[in-house]
Structure formats: structure tokens, C-alpha cells
Design brief:
Helix content is 25%, strand content 38%. The chain is of the alpha+beta class. The chain has one domain: Roll (Pnp Oxidase, Chain A). A hairpin with a 3-residue loop joins β5 and β6. The protein is globular, with a radius of gyration of 19 Å. The model has no long low-confidence stretch (mean pLDDT 84).
Length: 169
């Protein structure tokens, strides 16, 4: 996959405001919703978090994470390495007003920090080519005891995956 194709996949981040961040603690996976603060053309996703949160302790122990994003017809799974920073410029760039309830002093709160996910593997699904009529047809077919042809369902869904772990960011 070319760099341009990878950038096209990451352009889909425009359509998401929230994501599920998945970390690991004691061998168990933990997920929580996060407000997407910022992202870069090369797929780095940034969130604001508190330095005293459990997810920060989990990332300190095991920095490999996943970010799962789900829209009406687009799905994105970004695996990568998390990096934590208190860089003021990044906090200012990443800050969203919707995060105010968790930070009494707003973006200047001493507990505010940026959690940045540097992608290593990305999967993308797009069902926007799947029409409403096709979906209704498949549902009706199932209701009448038949199963939709799996190959036709697969053809309606665009799926791409790319390992970018060796790609310099």
C-alpha cells in the first residue's frame, strides 16, 4: 500500500469525534470512550487525559493500545504504541471544550496531558457502497429463512489493512 493510500485511510478520521481506547491491565483488556482531540496525516491520534487516571498507569506498564472507531458505514481499528506527554503546545492543539468537566482549570489544569497513539497496524472497513435496498433485501432474505450470499455482502464492503510498524513516522 502506498503512502498516499495510507493517508487516504487516515483521512477517514475526519468523520469521528469519539473512539474507544483499549489498554491492557493484568492481562485483561480495558476499553473506554475518549474524545478525539487531534490527529495527524500519518495517523497519530491524540487525546487529552488526566495524569492520575488508570489508563495512564496501564500505558506506563504496557504501551501497546488499540483505538476502535465506528461510524454509520465506516469502521477503523488502529493498533499502536501510546506515548504520554505534558507538552503545552500539544495540549493546546489537542484540547476540546467538551473535556472541560474533567479538568477544573480547563486546558491549564496541572493534571492535563496528551495521550498520543502512534499507529503500527490499521484496519479499515467502508460499507458506504452498500445501499439501503441491499440491506433490506438481505434482512428480508434472512427473515424468510435464507441466508444472504456471503460473497455479495463482502463485495459491498471495502476492507483494507496495512502493517506500518516498520514505516518511519
Amino acid at each position: 500500500m502506498t503512502d498516499n493510500e495510507i493517508r487516504q485511510i487516515f483521512k477517514n478520521l475526519d468523520s469521528f469525534d469519539h473512539a474507544m481506547l483499549v489498554t491492557e491491565r493484568d492481562g485483561e483488556l480495558r476499553s473506554r470512550p475518549m474524545v478525539i482531540g487531534d490527529y495527524t496525516d500519518d495517523g497519530r491520534i491524540r487525546f487529552i487525559t488526566r495524569d492520575d487516571s488508570e489508563k495512564v498507569a496501564e500505558i506506563d506498564e504496557y504501551p501497546k493500545v488499540n483505538v476502535a472507531l465506528h461510524g454509520d458505514s465506516t469502521f477503523l481499528s488502529v493498533s499502536g504504541n501510546a506515548r504520554l506527554t505534558k507538552n503545552r503546545d500539544l495540549i493546546d492543539k489537542t484540547w476540546q471544550q467538551t473535556q472541560r468537566p474533567w479538568f477544573s482549570e480547563g486546558r491549564d489544569d496541572p493534571h492535563a496531558m496528551v495521550l498520543e497513539v502512534i499507529p503500527t497496524y490499521v484496519e479499515y472497513w467502508n460499507r458506504s457502497g452498500s445501499s439501503v435496498m441491499q440491506s433490506i433485501f438481505h434482512q428480508a432474505q434472512e427473515a424468510l429463512g435464507g441466508m444472504p450470499d456471503r460473497d455479495s455482502v463482502r463485495q459491498e464492503t471495502e476492507h483494507r489493512s496495512v502493517d506500518i510498524s516498520n514505516r518511519p513516522l
